[in-house]
Amino acid sequence: MAKPPLIFKRSTNTLLRYLDASVAVGDALPSEQRMAELTQGSRTAVRSSLAYLHSRGLIAALRDRRLLRKPQSDDYFDEAELQSGAVRIQEVLMERIYRNDLPPGADFSEAELARAAGASTISVREFLIGFSRFGLIEKKPQGGWRLCAFDRTFATELEQVRRMFELAAVEQLVSLPAGHPAFEQLDILVRRHEALKAGLPDNYADFPALDRELHTFLIGLLNNRFAFSLNDLVSLVFHYHYQWDKGEERPRIQHAVQEHLVLLRALARRDRTAALAAMNKHLDSARRTMLDAVLKRTHGTAPH
């Protein structure tokens, strides 16, 4: 039997998180249209997820869509299963960059990256060609690839464009009408951040994924292909330092979670002034820690 597609798994996990946070046992599920909006998919895809919920005993029948029990951990698809080949290639490449295995100017081959990522050379070549548009890597005329300068200038330029898109996303969200599905997703993000904060420091390793989810949610509101592409690079460059720069990891994450909550609560209130201020403060913190991480890796000095 063929494995369920990644989109189905991701949509189903999103729906499960919504049911856990927002639907009481015995209550009816939202309409198919609302669930399609929540999962950013089609009603056909929602029906596939409903069939899965029925098979797991979360709903009694496809027509009687009342929640019989809250989702449990084994109802969710393993997050590791949701990684495409391109994601694994990205992770391996950025891990090598952040561990200084690939300093600026270093050469590397498609074959070595394919072995490390457990992917085919064709998949690696397609990823590298697409990723090269960001200016972080370049194709060598004689074959192979070269890492370009990953330095303070690169990080600063990326942060400037990131700020433009994310502030636009804040403006977009606070202008949405009350009752828009985005606010339901926002409420879920608030609850998940509150749960993460309550569990710190034991669960600090869960922050990078939630961080990416928040910013991806905001960028998605713009429905802008250029913003989507930028978000891929932001996730790689700005978020990976949480994993590889361990110096002040725990207090930095505690601070970032609190900044997220201030932003999320302002967005939930549709308080434009407070939300823009919170986003600017959060982006200032991200820029500062990113530049400190670049400085530390480049010169071996402690962050300022």
Q: What topology does this entry show?
A:
Elements (H helix, E strand, L loop, with lengths): L5 H17 L9 H8 L3 H13 L29 H14 L8 E2 L1 H8 L3 H11 L5 E3 L5 E3 L4 H23 L6 H19 L7 H14 L4 H13 L3 H4 L4 H20 L3 H28 L5
Antiparallel strand pairs: 1-3, 2-3
What name does the CATH topology of the largest domain carry? Four Helix Bundle (Hemerythrin (Met), subunit A)
Terminal residue distance: 54 Å
Following the backbone from N to C, one meets helices and strands in this order, namely: HHHHEHHEEHHHHHHH
Main pleated sheet: 3 strands, antiparallel
CATH class of the largest domain: Mainly Alpha
How many structural domains? 3
Q: Give helix % range.
A: 55-70%
Overall morphology: globular
Please, what is the average pLDDT? 84
CATH H level, superfamily name of the largest domain:
GntR ligand-binding domain-like
Oligomer: single chain
Give the low-confidence spans.
none
CATH architecture name of the largest domain? Up-down Bundle
